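Handout, section B. The chain below has 218 residues.
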Amino acid sequence: MNPGLPYEAIIFDMDNTLLKSSINFPQIKSEVFALLCKEQLLPPGFPVGDHTIATLIETARNTPGMTPALDQTVWEIVVEGERAGMAGAGLEPNVTEVLERLHGRYPLTVLTNNAYQAALEALERTGIIRFFDHIAGREQMDALKPSSSGVAALLAHYPHIRPEKWLSVGDSWIDGKAAQGGGVAFLAYNAKVAELARREVPSIGHIQSMRELLGYLE
């Protein structure tokens, strides 16, 4: 670690940042929304396009009709979609090369909305789990990204590293919002630039190759 450089620790998103995920998030969201509408927790005209799976569920949880049994059913839809999409998922290009370069020089962490055990299995299967000091899945958060609670949970392991010395790398606006809420800089990886702008998510840059991350660190 070079104290003269701006960042001292890194948070990586997992799906479509480290791993080339084929999780069909739009399909999962559609199924979750259909169930919540059927149970009359959300109205048919609800602006589903402005929400993620996580924020749909959080919105439903704030209604009196969200029972523990229904909450479990909703998460079963999510877990099944995640399981199908992660089957055989490989790595994004250059990920192993870059992690090998950074390992031992920076604390490396993962923050994912996926289930913790599923994240462990995917990172183990792809051979990169050995690079990470901490992994946070949805069980380690009070609320899913775009909430910053997962960022706070990771930073709590490193009280000697100030938030502004962290860098978060992710492909989605929800990664950027979580970083923003936690006081952490965000670097967009193959992200939709227009969506980041629409969501008012600041970033220090946009990269198309994981190798470009090194330019922000070395």
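Note. Strands lie at 9-12, 19-20, 90-91, 108-111, 134-136, 166-170, 185-189, 205-207. Compare this with the example in section A.
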